[in-house]
Design brief:
Blueprint lengths: L23 E7 L3 H12 L6 E8 L5 H11 L3 E6 L3 H12 L4 E4 L5 E2 L3 H11 L4 E9 L4 E5 L5 E4 L1 H7 L9 E4 H4 L12 H12 L1 E13 L12 H20 L10 E4 L3 E5 L4 E5 L2 E6 L8 E6 L3 H5 L2 H10 L4 E7 L3 H5 L6 E5 L7 H11 L5 E6 L4 H9 L4 E4 L9 H7 L31 E5 L11 H14 L3 E4 L4 H12 L5 E2 L6 H10 L2 E4 L2 H10 L3 E4 L6 H4 L8 E4 L5 H11 L11
Parallel strand pairs: 1-2, 1-4, 2-3, 6-10, 15-16, 15-18, 16-17, 18-19, 20-21, 20-23, 21-22, 23-24, 24-25
Antiparallel strand pairs: 4-9, 5-10, 6-7, 6-9, 8-10, 11-12, 12-13, 13-14
């Protein structure tokens, strides 16, 4: 291939070759690859087959990649450039597939290149023999040597998935192959992970069902030591590799594909090497196999979340739980909470089990911690996530022999608590961490102690007096709701201060249903579930309300707490008041959440 062509010598070919109805679409995903991008693109624009479409997806590059692509695009109308934020190669390739219009499609990595007659030979072979895949030979090019990677001695046709895999010698890289696009338009790469090639290629093979090998066409794979795959061999990339291999095996099993002995994971120690397969493990000493044990591979990862804090904070871990399940679908999430908050954790979405830490009872002191560890039924813990900088919980996580321990910091920066908890998963997965709305499912068998058909729940007290609603505001609000709507007010809370507050409301002549200290956590959940709305100054109660799905007015009299605890209006059906909190503003916020109109007004 000629790679010495100067960019300023490239002629516009739009007047000679139509960019419409291409025979082949070439998809290139690139990220910060300015050093090799010219070589790749020159090999594409100089293809002997001119009826091609070149789609380059710039996956959020921060180097000179955009400038390089702009120069090529100006000189060749066949080039389409798509820019996106960095989402990894799978997502980039999927964007390319969405834009592709070719009869066939092929993938070229941006640090690789192809022979100038590559597309022509593969296309002609596929069309002439009426097959759906054409596979080229591939070399693996290093800085100072070239090795044969995939070699075909002759042109040969294979039909059926298992025969195609035999013909490819189990090489499931996406590159060096041409695919008939019509058959595979709806197949997509796994996103937000590395090592996404093999599952996609296997699904394509299952769909295409016929292939021809083309021995005189060559793909040149450059073994770039600085590529995203080869740099930073961290645990997140290892997890990606395991997850993608398991996905591959799952696809194979469902479609009766024989992919032979396929290792899921290799572990290396000082002397030992261990290969994990689905149904057994092989152990090696100095490269010599010593024994094989029939131990089925268990991909279940145990995550232990330590949040021995309070009601609301336990709820704000739920987005983290959902992110864990998204990144590790076969994981088990075990939630460790303070005594009394077991039901707060147990019925959250994605929580599998709850373990109580009784810090003032049987788990008090060092001996109590030892008992907790001794009684803990889960072994081989993949990761413990300590949501705050809690040295006791970190020590327990170490005693439980957690493989990884992620611990919150004492950082005082203004980041919402829910997001801080989410971010503790970073480093264990390459998937983007999403701010999921927290979800709590009240058990169906819990009876609601409130028998009213239409009511609004009011919570005016918390653990701190400075966060409480002034008593006069509460009196005015209850009276306004009673006089202007047909909703009843249900007053909730716990503790002596709340009980005293409720008596003051009663003495003022307010008409409401007093449920202070009369509900368990689950019964409070049932009350909130059936409520038309919730008004709360207590963050735990407000989190509980909108996690259940109740429209909620959130009041922050101590306004500096709002950035840490106030809910996101984009995620929940809420109104948040931080300043100018008075009866009229609270009532106006309530009306935004409820169908309060002229028909609801009580005639007085």
């Amino acid at each position: 291939m000629k790679v010495g062509i100067r960019l300023d010598n490239i002629k516009k070919i739009g007047d000679k070759i139509s960019a419409q109805n291409p025979k082949v679409t070439i998809i290139v995903a690139t990220y910060n690859n300015e050093q090799y991008l010219d070589r790749c693109l020159l090999s594409l624009i100089n293809q002997s087959l001119k009826e091609i479409q070149i789609i380059v997806i710039n996956d959020g590059s921060t180097d000179n990649t955009p400038e390089i692509l702009s120069k090529y695009k100006k000189n060749d109308e066949r080039i389409i450039v798509i820019n996106q934020e960095n989402q990894k190669q799978g997502a980039a390739r999927n964007r390319g597939l969405e834009a592709a219009t070719g009869e066939f499609v092929t993938f070229v990595d941006s640090d690789d290149w192809i022979d100038e007659d590559y597309c022509e030979k593969l296309y002609n072979a596929a069309v002439k023999n009426n097959v759906n895949i054409a596979s080229a030979c591939a070399t693996r090019d290093y800085d100072n040597k070239v090795k044969e990677h995939l070699v075909f001695e002759k042109e040969e046709i294979y039909k059926g998935s298992n025969n195609i895999l035999r013909g490819l010698k189990m090489h499931l890289e996406t590159h060096s192959k041409l695919y008939r696009f019509e058959n595979i338009k709806n197949i997509r790469f796994p996103e937000e992970v590395f090592y996404e090639d093999a599952p996609y290629t296997l699904e394509v093979i299952i769909k295409e069902q016929s292939m021809i090998t083309v021995p005189d066409a060559h793909y040149h794979y450059y073994s770039n030591s600085n590529s995203t795959i080869k740099t930073g061999g961290n645990i997140a990339k290892q997890n990606d590799k395991i997850e993608m291999n398991l996905l591959l095996l799952d696809i194979a099993r469902k479609n009766n594909i024989d992919i032979g002995k396929f290792p899921i994971l290799k572990e290396r120690h000082f002397l030992w090497g261990i290969k994990h397969y689905l149904d057994y493990k092989e152990f090696y000493l100095f490269g010599i196999k010593i024994k094989t044990l029939n131990i089925p591979f268990n991909n279940e990862k145990i995550f232990v979340i330590f949040n021995t804090s309070y009601f609301g904070d336990v709820l704000l871990c739920n987005s983290l739980c959902q992110n864990i399940k998204r990144a590790f679908p076969q994981s088990k999430i075990v939630f460790v909470v303070n005594k009394g908050f077991e039901d707060v954790a147990r019925y959250q979405k994605c929580v599998d089990d709850v373990v109580v830490f009784d810090k003032n009872g049987i788990h008090k002191g060092f001996l109590g911690q030892l008992k907790f560890v001794k009684d803990f039924k889960y072994k081989n813990i993949f990761a413990s996530i300590v949501t705050y900088h809690n040295s006791r919980n970190k020590k327990i996580a170490k005693m439980l022999k957690s493989r990884f321990i992620k611990m919150g910091t004492l950082d005082k920066s203004i980041i919402h608590t829910q997001i801080k908890h989410n971010n503790l998963l970073k480093g264990l997965t390459n998937r983007n961490i999403k701010n999921f709305p927290i979800k709590y499912n009240v058990p169906k068998n819990i009876e609601n102690p409130v028998k009213e058909s239409k009511y609004i729940v009011l919570c005016t007290t918390s653990k701190k007096l400075e966060k409480d609603m002034p008593i006069n505001t509460a009196i005015d609000l209850i009276n306004k709701i009673n006089s202007e709507t047909d909703y009843k007010v249900v007053y909730v809370g716990a503790g002596q201060n709340c009980e005293k507050y409720a008596h003051e409301l009663e003495n003022s002549g307010c008409d409401f249903i007093n449920m202070v200290n009369k509900t368990s956590i689950l019964e409070l959940g049932a009350v909130l579930k059936d409520a038309e709305a919730l008004i709360s100054v207590d963050t735990g109660t407000m989190h509980f309300g909108y996690a259940i799905g109740t429209p909620t007015v959130c009041l922050f009299y101590q306004n500096d707490l709002a950035p840490f605890w106030a809910p996101d209006k984009n995620l929940y059906n809420v109104e948040v008041l931080v300043n100018d909190i008075n009866t009229e503003n609270i009532y106006s916020s309530l009306k935004k959440l409820l169908p309060i109109n002229s028909e609801d007004v009580t005639n007085v």
